Every structure is written in structure tokens, then in C-alpha cells.
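agent> step 3/5: call structure_predict on target 'Toluene tolerance protein' (Vibrio hepatarius).
agent> reason: downstream docking stage needs a structural representation; sequence fetched in step 2, passing through unchanged.
tool.input:
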Amino acid sequence: MLKKLVLTLVSVFFSFQVIAAEVDKTQPYEMMKQVSEKAFSRLKAEQPKIQQNPDYLKVVVEEELMPYVNDKYAALKLLGTNLKGAKREDVAEFIEAFRSYLISSYAQVLTKYSDQEIQFGPEPKLDPSKSITGIKVEIIDSPRPNIKLEFKLRKDKRSGEWEAFDMIAEGISLLSSKQSEWNGKLRQEGISAVAKDLKELAAKPIQFESPAQ
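tool.output (status=ok):
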């Protein structure tokens, strides 16, 4: 009886923790702050595991960041005019490959994490008539120059939830830069060919940079 009571209390306790940890996706500014704090706390706590197996960073990205990223919208926006006349199966393949590429890219960026401080800019005023907003973040990386970022988020009209779809680093949009980089091959060889390249890039192991000699 006592054992059953203890198990029940433990179950309730962990259920409460899960509920308390839920992120409200209808509040983009608070959502980004919560997601960042949770992700960087995990990075700090699991550094020994990450150092032993850098590919574990892909798991962290998948679990902590991707639920708040609209990778499908980002992929379609990136394809742009290349969507015209495209086969549905090729587009689906590209969306899946782009998601894997994002996970791998974010994971590689996180190898640079060394307990930097993150400062959020002022909370933006949301215009009910607009579905896009930007949230500015500055990474304090002393003695190196600070890194200025802006995350672009889009609101789903049905659910009212916000998800990130682009990141602007020092004034350069990730989506725009990748669109310029891949547009030639998309036009010449097609969506499936670029999707294949993305899969190969995503499959590469995560590596820490060798220390400067």
C-alpha cells in the first residue's frame, strides 16, 4: 500500500513538472526565452555526454528546438518560384531533407557553446493584422565581439501559435543566403537533386573545431 502511494505521488509530481514546463506558443517572446533557457541549461548539464558523442547535439536540437521551428514553411519559402510545376513527392522529399539539414546545422553551431550569456532585446509589439514578427537576441561572447541575431516567427492563423522560420545573423538571412546558394542547382537539376545534397550534408557527423595551434 505504501509503495503504491509513493508511486502515485511520484507520478503526480512528474506530471506537474511536465505541465509546468509546457511552453505557450501563442506568446512568441516568452516562448523564445523559455526555449532558449531550457536548451542552454540542457547543453550545460550534458556537456560530458556531448563531448563524448558530438552527434548527441542532434538529439538536443530535435527535442528542444525543432518543436518551435516551422521547417515546412521555411522549406517552401526557400523553394519559392521553383515550386511551380514541381512534383508533390519531390517537394515532400525536399521538406524532409531540409529539416534534417537544419537539425545538423543547428547542432554544429551549438558546438561553439561555452556558457555564453544571452540577452533578449525589447519585447516587440504584436500587430493583430500581421502574422510575422521578429525577436532580437544578442549573444555576449567576450572577449570576442557580441553576436547579434534576429529570429523571424510566423503565426498560424488557425491555432494562434508562433513558430520560428528564419534566423538573421548580423543582418544576413539564413533563408535568403541558402536560396541564393541553391537556386541555380534547383533550376538546373531540380528539387530532388538538391534534396539529395541536403541529406548528404545532414548525415555528416558533428565535429568540434580543433583548437588553434
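agent> step 4/5: record observation. Residues 25-203 form a domain with the Nuclear Transport Factor 2; Chain: A, fold (CATH 3.10.450.710).
agent> proceeding.
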